[in-house]
């Protein structure tokens, strides 16, 4: 059990990693590339072990494990390997008139020793995807996998040391005590995926040492849908977005639907038939649905359903079985906006449907909530698309689908406000663990004596012209003329 | 006394709460998001600076004793340049940028869309009291944010004039100035901001970030540190001495976050360098620097005492080789050089932020790097050497917010370079477009078309479907 593992001496651990980092080993392109390839190898060779762990922890199907976790990690590794040289190379910037002649360069360097704290719902992806960024950036890393997914935690603790540089990359298992001990230390970067409550604890701990953070949190990701779309295509996408990824237990899961009122009956009936198509008459028998992660969350979710004002609004599903931690994919229609199920991020297989008059009402409802990690808009009307993009704020957005923006490595993936700070994926992962150091190179061939005190009127004119990028004024000043103000 | 303070604090808190609510309302109205509003505000700010130069300069002179031209060059011209750049580039900065979409995600298009974070708090320090408040404000405005500026209470005349002028030129529904000391700052920090931008010291930086953590507010912290200068025998000593003296004493008398803090000099040139520095100090500031207007003064009695304590430490006092004179009444401390103090005396432990320059003789690059690595990462690091290998070693083996090779401080004028710290010298950056970025959220937007998806992507996932999807995913990955 992850929580039974003895406490690691955090200070000693950090000392070891700092020594490794100070040696400069992790900075070389060779080391970074080697580690990325080792990670790639691990994920490829140990796929069966990973699937076993994820089945144990969450009842995930092989398909889900591959498509939603492994493929993404492989993708990230390969992209990083391919682009590493480019990402690492210094970038030239334009200089200022005042500094001619000179060269301005931005030089990326690793932040140092990073702590990656990952979540239980995509326990492989959310540990390894940030790891790709940290390693590509040249950092030493400690991964603290979630103890709520203990089989995956054990997998990582066992296999990462077998493939990767043990002196630079370590896995520490454990629960609250362990993470508290780790957070007492001074890290050069903390990367956290989880909920906002713990996010605050992470940031408060980071503040003690001025450690920069990336916090990938959650929120209630709404879908707005109107009648301009193909109902069958939309229904399929909504259902896959909601239930295929960890049975609704994902930071990106559509939380609730805001549906244009004329579209409600059609959408509901299509959702119902499509859900049966996908998961069968009795979804308990479907191999494609993960289970609720543990009893705690099971109780939390069933309590949401059992609230009287909510229970009477169930229009599909609602069945549950505590022993197998199963809750049926459930639809609810027009629960009151102040019902418990509408108060918190659901993080489960329940989908409330709220009737709205149109985009204005939807925006009104959305704006009253904290900014979510994503907003999904299903509409073919370009003006409505525009309106939703510009009048709402969220980490990311998808038009006419859900969740899948995650697949675009060139889109920075992260939250805003309560849904998080910072971003990653693609180069953004490299940047999340890097400091972009500005460098100005000058030589001794040209000196502008006007810049030094004591300042005569003439000198002041020269400087003024230089700083004001006033070439003509500069020329005139240097020639001793007076410029008309 | 305590009761009055508490009442004031309560009243302050209530006022500030209402202020934030008002600003949030303004942001929700959408007005600050428009390009028109942002340009209007930036132009108004430019006008404010141009039309009120004299009173702004007078205010800084009253608070800090800085000569007018110094303030013009380091603050007013800086702000004018920032404004003009933002006005010129705003359209481009605001434009959504298309990014490539992997084959897996076709058909579809993807854009990165900048949006304002919302309501920002900008806290300014006292040493460049106008620009270090207004420059971040320019970033906030260009990003479409509403903002509160809290100028430093240590420069009360400047604070007062900013509180007077800003409402006359800018949209008071969106931009406000709040004056005051610790109680009001505490009240401000207790609110939920969408961004906090703080320039100042490490101690308060941690307080700011801890306050921000309660609301998950992103922060930019521009702090300081001991910015070292390494110098070896490959350089023009006279030019180097001038650049170092200017960097150390010409801008705020050493009271600047990027001022050279201490020198590490290769032993073979140490005596010559010390001599050249002494000559240059006299060249710049005269035989009796207490009469030199260029130097401004130490900001207040607190800092004066702090700095003289550093000099009066016995193991430091005996190492003074130039300067050391002081006058508490005029808050004057002479440009002072201390040579080869032990590395554990107070002047070598914390950021000096004053006109004292320790010089440490080192054997070479290795010793210099070791000394630098024993201290927290500074905001700036300077290397005077024409030897490219030496330059490279410092760049790759040390870490700092920013680096100047054969120059001090001037890199701050290059707006294409992000200006910010790392580790204890700060987090985040600004200047130029980076100011816009500091107050923006970059939202990833992915547009998918409504054509029917391949059946294979939907459950139930039979092994046939699994294999199909898998091969599609794998094949796709090979192309990346």
TrEMBL record, chain A:
InterPro entries: Ald_DH/histidinol_DH, Ald_DH_C, Ald_DH_N, Aldehyde_DH_dom, Aldehyde_DH_NAD(P). Keywords: Oxidoreductase. The keyword Oxidoreductase applies. Residues 20-439 form the Aldehyde dehydrogenase domain. Gene3D superfamilies: Aldehyde Dehydrogenase, Chain A, domain 1, Aldehyde Dehydrogenase, Chain A, domain 2. Pfam families: Aldedh. Coiled coil: none annotated. SUPFAM superfamilies: ALDH-like. Belongs to the aldehyde dehydrogenase family. This is Aldehyde dehydrogenase.
TrEMBL record, chain B:
Residues 34-444 form the Aldehyde dehydrogenase domain. PROSITE patterns: ALDEHYDE_DEHYDR_GLU. It holds the Pfam family Aldedh. InterPro entries: Ald_DH/histidinol_DH (IPR016161), Ald_DH_C (IPR016163), Ald_DH_CS_GLU (IPR029510), Ald_DH_N (IPR016162), Aldehyde_DH_dom (IPR015590), Aldehyde_DH_NAD(P) (IPR012394). Keywords: Oxidoreductase. It comes from the Eukaryota. The active site is at 222. Belongs to the aldehyde dehydrogenase family. PANTHER family: ALDEHYDE DEHYDROGENASE, ALDEHYDE DEHYDROGENASE TYPE III, ISOFORM Q. This is Aldehyde dehydrogenase. It comes from Sphagnum jensenii.
């Amino acid at each position: 059990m992850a929580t039974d593992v003895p406490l690691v001496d955090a200070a000693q651990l950090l000392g070891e990693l700092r020594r490794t980092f100070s040696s400069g080993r992790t900075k070389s392109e060779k080391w970074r590339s080697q580690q990325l390839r080792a990670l790639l190898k691990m994920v490829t060779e140990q796929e069966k072990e990973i699937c076993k762990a994820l089945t144990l922890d969450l009842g995930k199907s092989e398909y889900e494990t591959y498509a939603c976790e492994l493929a993404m990690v492989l993708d990230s590794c390969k992209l990083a390997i391919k682009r590493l040289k480019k990402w690492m190379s210094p970038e030239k910037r334009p200089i200022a008139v005042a500094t001619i002649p000179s060269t301005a360069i931005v030089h990326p360097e690793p932040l140092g020793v990073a702590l990656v704290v990952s979540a239980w719902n995509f326990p492989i992806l959310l540990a390894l995807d940030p790891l790709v960024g940290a390693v590509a950036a040249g950092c030493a890393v400690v991964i603290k996998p979630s103890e709520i997914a203990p089989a995956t935690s054990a997998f990582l603790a066992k296999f990462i040391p077998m493939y990767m540089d043990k002196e630079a990359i370590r896995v520490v298992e454990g629960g609250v005590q362990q993470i508290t001990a780790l957070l007492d230390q001074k890290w050069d970067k903390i990367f956290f995926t989880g909920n906002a409550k713990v996010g605050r604890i992470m940031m408060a701990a980071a503040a003690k040492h001025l450690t920069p953070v990336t916090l990938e949190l959650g929120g209630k990701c709404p879908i707005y849908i109107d009648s301009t779309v193909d109902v069958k295509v939309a229904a399929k996408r909504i259902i896959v977005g909601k239930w295929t990824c960890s049975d609704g237990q994902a930071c990106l899961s559509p939380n609730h639907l805001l549906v244009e009122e004329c579209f409600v009956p059609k959408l509901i009936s299509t959702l119902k038939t499509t859900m049966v198509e996908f998961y069968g008459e009795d979804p308990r028998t479907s191999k494609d649905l993960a289970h609720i992660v543990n009893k705690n969350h099971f109780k939390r979710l069933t309590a949401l359903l059992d609230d009287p004002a909510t229970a009477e609004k169930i229009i599909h599903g609602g069945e549950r079985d505590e022993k197998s931690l199963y809750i049926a994919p459930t639809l609810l229609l027009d629960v009151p906006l102040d019902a418990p199920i509408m108060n918190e991020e659901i993080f489960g297989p329940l989908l409330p449907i709220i009737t709205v008059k149109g985009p204005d009402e939807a925006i009104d409802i959305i704006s009253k909530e904290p900014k979510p990690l994503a907003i999904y808009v299903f509409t073919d009307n370009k003006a409505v698309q525009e309106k939703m993009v510009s009048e709402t704020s969220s980490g990311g957005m998808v038009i006419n689908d859900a969740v899948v923006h995650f697949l675009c490595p060139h889109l920075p993936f992260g939250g805003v406000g309560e849904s998080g700070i910072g971003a990653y994926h693609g180069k953004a992962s490299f940047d999340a663990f890097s400091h972009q150091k500005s460098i100005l190179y000058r030589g001794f061939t040209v000196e502008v004596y006007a810049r030094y005190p004591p300042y005569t009127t003439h000198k002041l004119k020269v400087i003024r012209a230089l700083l004001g990028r006033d070439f003509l004024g500069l020329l005139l000043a240097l020639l001793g003329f007076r410029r008309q103000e | 006394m305590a009761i009055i303070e508490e009442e004031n604090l309560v009243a302050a808190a209530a006022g500030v709460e209402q202020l934030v609510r008002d600003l949030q309302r303004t942001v929700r109205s959408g007005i600050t998001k428009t390009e028109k509003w942002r340009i209007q505000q930036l132009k108004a700010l430019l006008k404010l600076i141009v039309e009120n130069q004299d009173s702004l300069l007078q205010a800084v002179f009253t608070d800090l004793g800085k000569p007018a031209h110094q303030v013009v060059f380091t603050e007013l011209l800086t702000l004018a340049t920032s404004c003009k750049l933002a006005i010129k580039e705003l359209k481009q900065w605001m434009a959504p940028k298309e990014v490539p979409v992997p084959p897996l995600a076709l058909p579809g298009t993807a854009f990165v869309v900048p949006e304002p974070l919302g309501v920002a708090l900008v806290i300014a320090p006292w040493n460049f009291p106008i620009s270090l408040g207004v420059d971040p404000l320019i970033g906030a405005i260009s990003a479409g944010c509403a903002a509160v500026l809290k100028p430093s209470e240590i420069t009360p005349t400047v604070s007062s004039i900013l509180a007077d002028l800003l409402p006359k030129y800018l949209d008071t529904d969106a931009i406000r100035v709040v004056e005051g000391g610790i109680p009001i700052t505490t009240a401000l920090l207790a609110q939920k901001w969408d961004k906090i931008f703080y320039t100042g010291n490490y101690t308060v930086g941690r307080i700011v970030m801890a306050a921000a953590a309660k609301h998950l507010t992103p922060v930019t912290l521009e702090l300081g540190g001991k910015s070292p200068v390494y110098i070896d025998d490959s350089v023009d000593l006279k030019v180097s001495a001038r650049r170092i003296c200017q960097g150390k004493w010409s801008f705020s008398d050493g009271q600047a976050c990027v001022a050279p803090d201490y020198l590490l000099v290769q032993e073979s040139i140490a005596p010559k360098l010390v001599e050249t520095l002494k000559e240059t100090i006299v060249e710049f500031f005269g035989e009796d620097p207490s009469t030199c207007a260029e130097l401004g003064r130490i900001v207040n009695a607190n800092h004066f005492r702090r700095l003289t304590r550093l000099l009066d430490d016995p193991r430091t006092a005996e190492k003074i080789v130039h300067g050391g004179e002081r006058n508490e009444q005029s808050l004057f401390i002479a440009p002072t050089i201390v040579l080869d103090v032990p590395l554990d005396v107070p002047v070598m432990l914390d950021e000096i932020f004053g006109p004292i320059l320790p010089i440490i003789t080192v054997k070479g690059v290795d010793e210099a790097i070791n000394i630098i690595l024993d201290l927290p990462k500074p905001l700036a690091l300077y290397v005077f050497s024409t030897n490219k290998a030496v330059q490279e070693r410092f760049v790759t083996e040390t870490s700092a917010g920013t680096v100047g090779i054969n120059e001090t401080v001037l890199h701050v004028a290059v707006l294409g370079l992000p200006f910010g710290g790392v580790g204890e010298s700060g987090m985040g950056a600004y200047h130029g477009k980076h100011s816009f970025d500091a107050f923006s959220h970059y939202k990833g937007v992915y547009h998918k078309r409504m054509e029917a998806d391949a059946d294979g992507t939907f459950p139930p996932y039979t092994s046939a479907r699994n294999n199909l999807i898998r091969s599609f995913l794998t094949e796709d990955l090979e192309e990346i």
